[in-house]
Structures are given as structure tokens and as C-alpha cells.
Amino acid sequence: MNASSPTTSCSGNRTGARESELVELVDDRGALTGTATVLDAHEAPGMLHRAFSIFLRRPDGRVLLQQRAAVKTRFPLRWGNTCCGHPVPEEAVTVSAARRLHEELDVSGVTLREVGVYQYFAEDPVTGRVEREYDHVLLGDVPDDVEFRPDPDEVAELRWVTVDTLLREIGDAPTAYAPWLEGVTRRLAAHLGPQLPDAVTESAAERSGGK
């Protein structure tokens, strides 16, 4: 499956409900310090909280990107990694991530493993919401014939791309992509070990940064 544009919803619009869910607040080392709602954690100046970013990979090495749905409250219609989310407080990151994959793409049974952590801040220049996340980068391998049924309340479109091509594309048009995507892709690249392009220059159109 090379690309997909969702046409029917399997879950209804959960965007508002997700804003009231709890996330784990953490310190710079990822240690739990408390909880807050998704809404409160993403109001400026933001609260550092645990998140995950999933990449699904085919046997040919390409990874799956999603274009975030227009109804997203942060960075709508930007291209991001396969799936993102926040683990339920005190639940294993991979357990929460597997559930999110099923909710967004109707995929289950994928073994996810952590390949790095990316801590970053980003401010959405359109909505004013912020991301301040301690982001666990997860990788899962899927077969060539995997099928997806994306939830259109979450995903506008899907496409496959190689890691090195993705980093070049981000360099050419950074504001077409979610601000965390370069950082989490570089964590994946460091795990995989290829030679990749130098880091892109931060766009003047939005404030962001990571480590």
C-alpha cells in the first residue's frame, strides 16, 4: 500500500475528548513528576510531558508517513511520522502506542521497540498551541501487504518514503512537516546507521527546538 486517503470514519471525531485525557508530566530525564490534561499540557508555555512517535517500516526500508487531519488542534495538515500520541499514565509506552496504532490506522499485532528519545519544544504559529515533549521514538516492522484503514478524524493521507529522502524533503520545505519530525527521524537514523543529510535550519515561521 503506497498511499491512502481516508473516506469513512471508524471512530467519530474524538479530538475534543482527547483534550481532557491525562498525560504524564516528566523532568528532563523522563522521570514522572505528575499528570495534567492534554489541553493544559499544550497551552503556552507548555508542560514537559511524555509522548511517543511511531515509525512503521516495510521490508524495503521505507517508513510510513501520515498527513495530520485538518481537525487536529496542533499542526493540522502537516506531514508527520506514522502515528503519535501520549501514553496513559503509569502504562507502558509500547502498550499505549499499540492501542493508538489500532485507533488511527486499524493495525494491530505490530511489535514496537524503542530506538531513541527526542525532547523538544514547538509552537504552532496558527493555533498558538505548543508541544513540549519527552518523545519516545518507536519502530515497528510490517509486511509489504499490510493494509490500513485510517480514521479521517486523525489522518488525511498516508505515504511511504525512505529515511534519507524524508530528511532531504524536510530541508526543502520544513513548514510542510510537523516540527518534531526531523528530530525523531534522526533518532531513527542513528539507530539504523546510514549516512544522512546535515540538520536543516530552523524556519523563521515558527519557534521550535529539540535535543
Automatic annotation (TrEMBL):
Catalytic activity: isopentenyl diphosphate = dimethylallyl diphosphate
Pathway note: Isoprenoid biosynthesis; dimethylallyl diphosphate biosynthesis; dimethylallyl diphosphate from isopentenyl diphosphate: step 1/1
Keyword presence, Transferase: no
Active site as annotated: C84, E133
Residue numbers binding Mn(2+): H42, H49, H86, E131, E133
Residues that coordinate or bind Mg(2+): E104
Enzyme Commission number(s) from the entry: 5.3.3.2
Subcellular location: Cytoplasm
Transmembrane segments: none
Cofactor binding note: Binds 1 Mg(2+) ion per subunit. The magnesium ion binds only when substrate is bound. Binds 1 Mn(2+) ion per subunit.
GO molecular function, a single term: isopentenyl-diphosphate delta-isomerase activity
Keywords: Cytoplasm, Isomerase, Isoprene biosynthesis, Magnesium, Manganese, Metal-binding
Span of domain Nudix hydrolase: 47-183
Cofactor(s) the protein needs: Mg(2+); Mn(2+)
Family named by the database record: Belongs to the IPP isomerase type 1 family.
NCBIfam families (alphabetical): IPP_isom_1, PRK03759.1
Purpose: Catalyzes the 1,3-allylic rearrangement of the homoallylic substrate isopentenyl (IPP) to its highly electrophilic allylic isomer, dimethylallyl diphosphate (DMAPP).
PANTHER family noted in UniProt: ISOPENTENYL-DIPHOSPHATE DELTA-ISOMERASE
Protein known as: Isopentenyl-diphosphate Delta-isomerase
Organism: Actinoplanes subglobosus
Lineage per the UniProt record: Bacteria, Bacillati, Actinomycetota, Actinomycetes, Micromonosporales
